[in-house]
Design a protein that fits this description.
alpha/beta, globular, about 200 residues, seven-stranded mixed β-sheet
């Protein structure tokens, strides 16, 4: 599903230490954003939004620590610019890792790679439920009072939002459905316009 470009002038960073960052960049470009790979703190300069993709959360956190990205990513969040975490990205954002999202996640909650599955997930989007791809997916074990649960599978939260962060347990970049990326880029465009108006 797609429409016209929604984010001209939006530079969307994708954490590119490990994982499926290239697929996210492709979808972001298709909805009109300018994707930019983020590997070191300087790469966060001048971007309007940040995707933290799926991959292997332990490897990705080691990369964040090695490159000194934790503090700059916290500063990026404090600036109010949108962050979108998918699968391992949800884990990296949680209380026990970067501490940007007030949740505790469970890794591989639905099982290992052989237990990957697809499910229809209703996040209240125009056009109906998403067909979501879950690969070694986490779920949210515990959420703080400021966290909004956007969707569940089998009674477990798999999509949440807190402030400028949206985090999901599945892989929207693999689905051929760009609605979540489109909404994310639209949010970034609004935040950028609001910041320039201050």
């Amino acid at each position: 599903m797609s429409g016209g470009p929604v984010g001209p002038g939006v530079r969307a960073g994708v954490l590119a230490l490990q994982g499926d960052f290239e697929a996210h960049a492709t979808v972001l470009a298709s909805v009109g954003a300018e994707p930019s790979e983020v590997r070191v703190p300087a790469d966060l300069l001048g971007i309007d939004a940040l995707v933290v993709p799926g991959g292997e959360s332990t490897t990705m956190m080691l990369g964040v620590e090695r490159e000194g990205l934790a503090g700059p990513m916290r500063d990026f969040h404090a600036s109010g610019r949108p962050i979108f975490g998918t699968c391992a990205g949800m884990i990296i954002l949680d209380r026990e890792h970067l501490g940007l999202l007030d949740v505790v996640t469970r890794r591989n909650a639905f099982g290992r790679q052989v237990h990957s599955f697809e499910s229809d997930v209703d996040m209240g989007l125009e056009g109906g439920p998403l067909r979501a791809v879950f690969i070694r997916a986490p779920w949210v074990e515990e959420a703080g009072p400021g966290v909004e649960v956007l969707a569940e599978v089998d009674g477990h939260p798999v999509a949440v939002r807190e402030g400028s962060i949206t985090a999901i347990a599945f892989h929207p970049e693999l689905e051929g459905d760009d609605r979540l990326h489109r909404d994310f880029v639209e949010e970034a465009a609004r935040a950028k316009a609001g910041a320039s108006g201050r």
